[in-house]
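Page 37, continued from 36.
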């Protein structure tokens, strides 16, 4: 009998963001794999074993889960947000591509979740109302020069940009350099949204501008959305501003 491996997106925060499909997949699993804090979000069920690992050990976790599933077990790997966005689903595919033939017999199901970019955008208004793209600022898996080239291309072409993995202790200078790079193509007044721990009880959302963004605090739980030339802020008395990108653009951007 071939085993089953569900790669389950938990959404950005607490239970409110867990889909019914994700809940079902977690309930079916005999074994759960994942980063410890993500596993802690899932209520324990009798007879279900858990293997917590460090956030960086994605390849190792994927191999362990595939080895466990191949002989016939029902396994789930959990991922924050959506498992296909800078997360476990690609890691599992990489390991299946490189691994033994038995891993190709595993019944793989990828269960989507609300990715951080969508959760942050929803809090701020409608910044992703027109064309947008997403970039991870981590240079662990690609050279920094490539990131700069993509920042140039995306901002020059008028995309709103969602920045995942903006900063960490091991990568302290990259975010400042990224803002400096974007400032070559965009005015200092361009709206920038910082969403931290969105969907959790310590959530914060802050709206600023590209000129002031360098001084705003950010960490690994922060997702940043940098507007395009079209993105606007509606100021409101006694309420948070609404940030939006109009759906239509009249002119081709030079
Ligand atoms: N698979 C995840 C992303 C993993 S990369 C997803 O789809 O959301 C990790 C990055 O996601 C973090 O550095 C941060 O930029 C972002 N992130 C994840 N959860 C977040 C949350 N609750 N609030 C804000 N950003 C979050």
């Amino acid at each position: 009998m071939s085993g089953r491996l569900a790669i389950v997106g938990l959404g950005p925060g607490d239970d409110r963001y867990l889909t019914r499909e994700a809940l079902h997949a977690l309930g079916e699993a005999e074994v759960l794999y994942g980063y410890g804090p993500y596993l802690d979000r899932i209520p324990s069920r009798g007879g279900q074993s858990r293997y917590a690992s460090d956030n960086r050990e994605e390849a190792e976790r994927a191999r362990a889960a595939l080895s466990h599933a191949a002989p016939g077990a029902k396994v789930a790997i959990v991922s924050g947000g959506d498992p296909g966005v800078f997360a476990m689903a690609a890691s599992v595919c990489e390991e299946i591509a490189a691994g033994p033939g038995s891993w190709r017999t595993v019944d793989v199901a990828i269960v989507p979740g609300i990715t951080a970019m969508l959760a942050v955008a929803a809090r701020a208004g409608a910044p992703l109302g027109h064309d947008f793209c997403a970039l991870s600022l981590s240079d662990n898996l690609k050279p920094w020069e490539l990131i700069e080239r993509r920042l140039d291309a995306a901002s020059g072409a008028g995309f709103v940009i969602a920045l995942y993995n903006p900063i960490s202790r091991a990568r302290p200078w990259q975010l400042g350099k990224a803002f400096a790079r974007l400032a070559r193509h965009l005015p200092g007044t361009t709206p920038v949204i910082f969403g931290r721990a969105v969907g959790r009880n310590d959530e914060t959302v802050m709206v600023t501008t590209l000129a002031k963004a360098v001084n705003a605090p950010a960490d690994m739980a922060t997702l940043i959305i940098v507007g395009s030339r079209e993105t606007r802020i509606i100021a409101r008395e006694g309420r948070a501003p609404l940030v939006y990108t109009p759906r239509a653009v009249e002119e081709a951007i030079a």
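Residues 12-13, 79-82, 85-87, 115-116, 120, 164-166, 195-199, 220-223 surround S-adenosyl-L-homocysteine (CB under 6 Å). Flag for discussion at group meeting. The longest helix spans residues 144-156.
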